[in-house]
């Protein structure tokens, strides 16, 4: 493999290659290790990123489909809390069941029978 | 929105997101998703793949907003860079399995004039390079071109192409720092 130091431009040219996404995976990891303790080299990358993003200025914006926003929020925040009717549903069912039992008891005369 | 105010607003949202503020996340999405989705669509050239790119981009924004300040990027540059990286990553993966068209060297891309001062500076410095080299910079950034593809287009080996392009990048850097 060619060593970066053998190539023209040294680490500064590598910073441009890095910002352009031209480095192989191996070279990229190597460059990132080099970046870690080198604020000047980091500034090189940031400066390149600033210039290169101007290439996107003429790209027309496009509104993503509405469903994508929900998918993205679900992925980021986790599942949304259940809707309010689903939260009260167990209580509502319980209330209906209770009313049903009460009605059965009264209408069948069970209580009357027990008392008499 | 004025550019300076826009940058400050985006930064405020990113700082909010770093603290887990969902409203800030929604506000940033509402304001910036058309720009980022437009870029993703432009690079990957497929709406479905671009949607996956945008998902990955906002996942990264949500999880890495805390590290944004330490990175030293401007807020908009940070967002655009993440989007460009994710889009190129997706495009290359899809090209590798034949799901995306191979790189088209005749497609010169959107060549409108960049409105910002930095954009005009880059454009004028690119014009000082030999035309094919300037095209390679744009092809790498907006069409995910690799050294393998660029060297094939130049008709030379990768080992030969790389020093040539690196010299051009240094020439470009020299012009940009004038």
Automatic annotation (TrEMBL), chain A:
UniProt keyword list: Membrane, Transmembrane, Transmembrane helix
Transmembrane region(s): 91-114
Protein name: Putative anti-sigmaE protein
InterPro entries membership: Anti_sigma_zinc_sf (IPR041916)
Domain of life: Bacteria
Organism expressing this protein natively: Tropicibacter naphthalenivorans
Automatic annotation (TrEMBL), chain B:
GO biological process: DNA-templated transcription initiation
Keyword Mitochondrion: no
One of the record's GO molecular function terms: sigma factor activity
Entry-linked InterPro entries: RNA_pol_sigma-70-like, RNA_pol_sigma-70_dom, RNA_pol_sigma70_r2, RNA_pol_sigma70_r4, RNA_pol_sigma_r2, RNA_pol_sigma_r3/r4-like, WH-like_DNA-bd_sf
Keywords, sorted A to Z: DNA-binding, Sigma factor, Transcription, Transcription regulation
Pfam families xrefs: Sigma70_r2, Sigma70_r4
SUPFAM superfamilies: Sigma2 domain of RNA polymerase sigma factors, Sigma3 and sigma4 domains of RNA polymerase sigma factors
Domain RNA polymerase sigma-70 region: 28-95, 125-174
Gene3D superfamilies given in the database record: 1.10.1740.10, Winged helix-like DNA-binding domain superfamily/Winged helix DNA-binding domain (1.10.10.10)
Family assignment from sequence similarity: Belongs to the sigma-70 factor family. ECF subfamily.
Name of the protein this chain belongs to: Sigma-K factor
């Amino acid at each position: 493999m060619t060593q970066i130091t053998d190539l023209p431009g040294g680490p500064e040219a590598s910073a441009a290659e890095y910002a352009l996404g031209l480095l192989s995976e191996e070279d990229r990891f190597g460059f990132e290790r080099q970046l870690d303790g080198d604020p000047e080299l980091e500034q090189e990358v940031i400066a390149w990123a600033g210039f290169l993003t101007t290439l996107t200025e003429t790209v027309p914006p496009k509104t993503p489909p509405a469903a994508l926003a929900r998918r993205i929020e679900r992925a980021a925040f986790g599942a949304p809390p259940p809707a309010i009717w689903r939260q009260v549903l167990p209580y509502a069912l319980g209330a209906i069941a209770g009313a049903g039992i009460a009605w059965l008891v009264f209408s069948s005369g069970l209580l009357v029978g027990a008392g008499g | 929105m004025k550019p300076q105010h826009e940058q400050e607003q985006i930064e405020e949202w990113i700082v909010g997101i770093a603290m887990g503020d969902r409203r800030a996340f929604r506000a940033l999405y509402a304001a910036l998703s058309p720009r980022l989705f437009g870029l993703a669509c432009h690079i990957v050239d497929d709406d479905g793949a671009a949607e996956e790119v945008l998902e990955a981009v906002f996942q990264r924004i949500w999880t890495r907003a805390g590290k944004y300040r330490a990175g030293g990027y401007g807020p908009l540059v940070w967002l655009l860079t993440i989007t460009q990286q994710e889009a190129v990553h997706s495009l290359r993966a899809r090209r590798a399995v034949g799901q995306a068209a191979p790189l088209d060297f005749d497609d010169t891309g959107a060549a409108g004039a960049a409105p910002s001062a930095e954009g005009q500076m880059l454009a004028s410095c690119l014009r000082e390079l030999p035309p094919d080299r300037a095209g390679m910079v744009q092809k790498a950034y907006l069409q995910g071109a690799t050294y393998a593809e660029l060297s094939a287009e130049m008709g030379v080996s990768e080992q030969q192409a790389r020093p040539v392009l690196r010299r051009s990048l240094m020439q470009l850097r020299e012009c940009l720092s004038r």
